[in-house]
Q: What sequence folds into this?
């Protein structure tokens, strides 16, 4: 197929960042739907095989008529700020040098606000003072998630980070100038002579990039004379 079409297969996560927004959305929807169908071939009540409808929008158990619809897991992604700096973190699975906003799944019974406060406290030991919703985005990894992006501020004078090394590799405060410079980079980067990797951020398609970009722009607007 690669020879015939003069192309090559690449990892889906990488492909998403090389497409325009419309095609990336179609691809992520298709991938999430195919994965959902693969994981729901049997009824959880009867154990019998389920059948999908023509459109592929649901599966039905013929023995009891239970209908199964595709579901997404809600995930909060939060950019924490102390007013002049923002907090970014990285997991060991991230490409070298890449940092992003904090993220975590909503637990059963939690509101978005409760999840944000818990995740920030668990991952970096900070107490959220206020928060603001930004936007949402469907994300096909690991198995179909609804990314709910928010800004959060911490209480003044309570900015000492306590990184939970079971969830994060590291976390740090970054200045406006550092983040603005990183937004212009397109990574991933190769290792430098001193053994380090340049600090860079997720690609433009990711909602974390847009969340960070908005914070930078707000900082610029607030610094302009009235």
A:
């Amino acid at each position: 197929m690669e020879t015939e079409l003069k192309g090559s297969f690449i990892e889906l996560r990488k492909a998403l960042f090389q497409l325009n927004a419309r095609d990336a959305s179609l691809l992520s929807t298709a991938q999430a739907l195919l994965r959902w169908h693969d994981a729901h071939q049997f009824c959880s009540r009867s154990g019998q095989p389920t059948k999908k409808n023509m459109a592929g929008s649901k599966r039905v158990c013929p023995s009891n008529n239970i209908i199964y619809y595709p579901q997404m897991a809600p995930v909060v992604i939060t950019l924490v700020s102390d007013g002049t700096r923002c907090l970014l973190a990285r997991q060991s699975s991230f490409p070298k040098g890449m940092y992003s906003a904090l993220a975590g799944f909503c637990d059963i019974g939690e509101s978005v606000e409760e999840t944000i406060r818990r995740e920030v406290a668990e991952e970096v030991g900070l107490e959220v003072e206020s928060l603001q919703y930004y936007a949402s985005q469907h994300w096909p990894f690991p198995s179909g998630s609804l990314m709910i992006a928010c800004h959060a501020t911490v209480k003044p004078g309570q900015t000492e980070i306590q990184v939970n090394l079971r969830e994060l590799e590291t976390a740090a405060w970054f200045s406006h100038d550092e983040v603005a410079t990183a937004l212009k980079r397109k990574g991933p980067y190769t290792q430098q002579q001193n053994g380090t990797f340049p600090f860079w951020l997720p690609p433009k398609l990711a909602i974390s990039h847009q969340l960070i970009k908005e914070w930078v722009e707000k900082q610029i607007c607030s610094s302009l004379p009235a």
Observations:
- The chain has six helices and nine strands.
- The helical segments are 2-5, 12-16, 21-39, 112-124, 176-183, 207-223.
- The longest helix spans residues 21-39.
